[in-house]
Automatic annotation (TrEMBL):
Family: Belongs to the LemA family.
Keywords (A to Z) from UniProt: Membrane, Transmembrane, Transmembrane helix
Name the UniProt record assigns to this protein: LemA family protein
Natural source organism: Enhygromyxa salina
SUPFAM superfamilies registered for this protein in UniProt: LemA-like (SSF140478)
Topology versus the membrane: Single-pass membrane protein
Gene3D superfamilies with a match to the protein in the record: LemA-like domain (1.20.1440.20)
Lineage: superkingdom: Bacteria
Assigned GO CC terms: membrane
Statement: the UniProt record of this protein carries the keyword Coiled coil: no
Length: 199
């Protein structure tokens, strides 16, 4: 009788150990993936900050050559200020906050595009080494933004896939909002439509 009780107790202990090890392994995996998403979000913010830092120099360069383009210059300055006032924080945890963040960044992208179109009308500006260097840096930064947003979405997808799979979903739900599903960056409204080019 004692031997069967010891065996039963050993089996129960082994099962409890396996369950605890499974919960701990899943928790640690979620923490690692969550930190990956947070780290990639920091890279997205870093790249957007680089763009925001380039804007004043670009505006100042264009302002010197295109003094009567005041409205365009003001729209770029206002869009940059709006981006600067946003606290992105953990926007990837809140779909509404990410939408506001993305809308402000899209507004700045649109204003910068208009600024570069205006700059094309000024041959002396296009010939300026300073302007060309800033334009090149801005184009490079826009490419970096696209890359970092893709990497962020990849990190969020990896987290969300792990978080939603069984048995991880059960364990993640045990920890409340610590492991909420991450929000993705989405394309701008109308990006799926081909642009209309008129001559």
């Amino acid at each position: 009788m004692k031997r069967s009780a010891v065996i039963a107790l050993g089996v129960v202990g082994l099962v409890v150990f396996i369950i605890i090890a499974m919960i701990a392994g899943t928790y640690n995996s979620l923490v690692s993936l969550n930190e990956g998403v947070s780290g990639q979000w920091a890279q997205v913010e870093n790249t957007y900050q680089r763009r925001a830092d380039l804007v004043p120099n670009l505006v100042a360069t264009v302002r010197g050559a295109a003094t009567h383009e005041r409205e365009t210059l003001e729209s770029v300055t206002e869009a940059r200020a709006k981006v600067g006032r946003l606290d992105a924080g953990d926007a990837f945890e809140d779909p509404a906050a990410l939408e506001r963040y993305q809308a402000a960044q899209d507004e700045l992208s649109t204003a910068l595009s208009r600024l570069l179109v205006v700059a094309e009308a000024y041959p002396q500006l296009r010939a300026s080494e300073n302007f060309l260097a800033l334009q090149s840096q801005l184009e490079g930064t826009e490419n970096r933004i696209a890359v970092e947003r893709k990497r962020f979405n990849d990190a969020a997808r990896a987290f969300n896939t792990k978080r939603q799979s069984f048995p991880t979903v059960v364990i993640a739900n045990m920890f409340g909002d610590r492991f909420e599903t991450k929000t993705y960056f989405e394309a701008e409204v109308g990006a799926a439509e081909a642009p209309k080019v008129e001559f």
